[in-house]
Amino acid sequence: NANNLDSMIEEIATASVEQSQGVQEISKAMGELDKVTKQNSIIAYETSQNTKSLNDQATGLKTISIKQISK
């Protein structure tokens, strides 16, 4: 039946558009996740560097304190 065929073709076309929109949304979400992941990586690196710096400063203060107490 031609009406059924037209209806099926229309449903397939609608489903294809919806699928395409879904893929675009997923692609956008993946791009946002990638951006956030990179930002988190930078923050983690900076935190690591700051922790090392604070540890070095604490070690220096400890050394100074020991020298002052020894006097």
Structure summary:
The protein is mostly helical and 71 residues long.
Q: What would you report as the Rg, rounded to the nearest angstrom?
A: 30 Å
Which percent band covers the strand fraction? under 5%
Biggest sheet overview: none
Helix content: over 70%
In terms of quaternary structure, the protein is single chain
Termini Cα gap: 104 Å
Low-confidence stretches: none
Instruction: Give the mean pLDDT.
Output: 96
- Category by helix and strand content: mainly alpha
* Helix and strand pattern: H
Q: How many β strands by DSSP?
A: 0
Number of helices: 1
Overall form: rod-shaped
Considering the chains and any ligands shown, give keywords for the structure:
71 residues; 1 helix; mainly alpha
